[in-house]
Amino acid sequence: MLQKAWQAQQVPQCGYCQSGMLMAAAALLARNAKPSDADIDAAITNLCRCGTYPRVRAAIHAAAAELRATRGRA
Ligand code: FES
User: What's this model's pTM, rounded to 2 decimal places?
Assistant: First the structure.
């Protein structure tokens, strides 16, 4: 789900930081199914030299929405 959102939002550029970004995003979604922008900014402290932060945020919101829909709490 998270990886599909990453693909749909075309998040990676060079890809160097992406495994860590995905791990941090998965940890965030495990404890917060509806993160705000501030929640995402606080949780994703990984550095990305390519500046993919806006797309990371969009992908997390998309994955969170799909997660909630899957759980029946949309
Ligand atoms: S995608 Fe290049 S460092 Fe993040």
Answer: 0.93
